[in-house]
Write a structure and sequence with these properties.
The protein is built from 1 helix and no strands. By secondary structure, the chain is mostly helical.
Length: 49
């Protein structure tokens, strides 16, 4: 059984500022979605009678 090699991501080939900005935007987007979901779940729970 032959294993395929996993391609490693070479961070040195990219501008570090762009890479950090990408990671920051990705994190902000993820947590914004989480906070939005929690907000609407809370609103739905408070309106539940």
């Amino acid at each position: 059984m032959e294993r395929t090699t996993h391609v490693t991501f070479d961070k040195s080939a990219y501008n570090p500022v762009v890479f950090k900005t990408y990671k920051l935007v990705k994190k902000l987007t993820k947590y914004t979605i989480y906070i939005t979901m929690l907000y609407f779940m809370f609103e739905g729970f408070m309106a539940w009678k």
